[in-house]
Amino acid sequence: MKQFMIRPKILEFADVKTFLETFKIGKNDLIFISDRTLKKSFKGAFGEEAIIIDYRQYVNGEPTDTMVENIAKDLEGIEYHRVFAIGGGTILDVAKLFALKKTRPVVELFNKELPIEKNKELILIPTTCGTGSEVTNISILELTAISSKFGLAVDELFADYAVLIPELLIDLPMSVFATSSIDALIHATESYTSPKETSFSQLYSLKAIEMILTGYQKIVLADANKRQQVLNKEASNFLMASTFAGIAFSNAGCAAVHAMSYPLGAVYHIPHGEANYLLFTEVYKTYQSINPDGRIKELNQFLAKILVCEPDQVYDIMEVLLNKIITKKKLREYGVSHEDIRLFTDSVMTKQTRLMANNYVELSEKTIQAIYETLY
What we know:
Layout: E1 9-12, H1 16-23, E2 29-33, H2 35-41, E3 51-53, H3 65-74, E4 82-87, H4 89-97, H5 106-110, E5 121-126, E6 138-143, E7 148-153, E8 161-164, H6 174-193, H7 199-221, H8 227-252, H9 256-268, H10 272-290, H11 295-307, H12 314-323, H13 338-351, H14 353-356, H15 365-375
Parallel strand pairs: 1-8, 2-3, 2-4, 4-5, 5-8
Antiparallel strand pairs: 6-7
């Protein structure tokens, strides 16, 4: 049996003003937002009694269990009924945990040793176009004790409302856009080839892939000094594509690309989308070499039409396009050592089984290590 569902109610707003008029944020509302976003789009917008958490005061980089523990300590004794998160995947993933009745100890929560009960309304508003976290039931943290990212996936982490406001993506820095949108592209691709895919999830996967790649093509055709203008014009499409990809992978799951990128992010703090990109095309070339006649054949034919090439060339041609959005580096350029490759392989095989179960074909320990070696 396979199933498909879209859990949060998705709301689209023309602008921030209309959103604020609808939700009337104030007393007993907890808001996760960066100081930058607050000043840019929400200055003076929240009532004086609203509780504002600038997550950047707790961490510089990807979210960790320590970060959540520290926020939870600071919120002890403070009553709140609604949780708003306005930001990228880091903010959204962390905020989900604070809609639960009990958040800490975080490691016990992620190991499902604590009762998981949602008792607050959760409203998620993305300001990037990558994670799709607004429509997923997953929270990803770096668990510092094991030096790897780990996911908690339970229905209690679904938002009540996923709110899309394209205005929030205007003037998104190109570096943030690149790493987030490539992440969305990989979400869509991995969910398409997952054994858990359905005819419904595939529709969302393919539409997201098409929107992202055609958007990239428009950006790279523009003069360097006009790329930001093109991005601003395409903001609504990229935001929607990210949500489509989130819907797809919340149903079908991500796989080896994400599993193999997690140690890179945890140990070397490589931005999530960038770490995924390092693995993306090599993993899919490996899939293709093992079984070229399954679902990947259909994917390659679809990609070939967008990229205007032969199906057996899609990953090389795609990499040329993606390199114009963000440059792909060798693992050693981040300080990765040969010893790390062995440790990363072990980590993937033992700690990322949830994701590895979604691979297009089974990848052995030897194959995982070979992919890392090729990218070294």
